[in-house]
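ugh ok fine here u go
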Amino acid sequence: MKEKTLRVGLVQQACTADREYNLKNSAAGIREAVARGAQLVMLQELHTGLYFCQHESTDLFDLAEAIPGPSTEWLGALAKELNIVLVGSLFERRAPGLYHNTAVVLERDGSLAGKYRKMHIPDDPGYYEKFYFTPGDLGFTPITTSVGKLGLLVCWDQWYPEAARLMALAGADLLLYPTAIGANPADAADERARQRDAWITIQRSHAVANGLPVLVANRTGFEPDPTGQTAGAQFWGSSFVVGPQGEFLAQAGTDQAEVLVVDVDLARSENVRRWWPFLRDRRIEAYSDLVKRFRD
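structure:
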């Protein structure tokens, strides 16, 4: 098949409590990616500030914003100026007392192409997201853009093969994961390494199982727990792009800001699916138990 190349960019950065400083760094990363030819650029999860879910505080709901609102206006202006498709992430205020962890896609003309509300919400030490975010209600529907259909998911969604599969079945050309994940510095080094390796492996498996490229943008840097109750979070970076057989096309380091830019051949997915026709051989008539919580 004829090659169909899309040059993609990922911006990996450390964040502070200073929103304007974070946006300045994000913009610099976006501009670097575009200078290197990127047509699609993705930022990490909740890139405008610190990962505030390390503890629970009702005051932090003041960080939430409407869509459209300040972040989508800022992202839209950059997308239009640079003539790119841009993926961002924000804390959405949908209504008083109703908030979501939402990723947005801005088209080349600056318009909002679509949004995705995070479906799977964790609740673990240092990741108290259920306190802040209502589970998404927009389903697993790719967002149509001028560069293709984006199967946009967010962080904790990346552990669920069902989410990736449903995006693939709906015609996604790519799977994208804005992410904020790291390790507890108090854990042993070998445990931290196993967790990072598992995180990479599960997402590579989504590429293989669905015959699709996967893009992952994660934050880096250490962020302390404001309450002092835990050792804080050491975000492990490692943003990456893999092809439809899970092959690495690019990967960032663990401990510094970095901009990845790489070419992805979207036509390769069809060839891979011809060689490995997993979608053809699915036994859909036998999968009804997947909608059960557990088979007792």
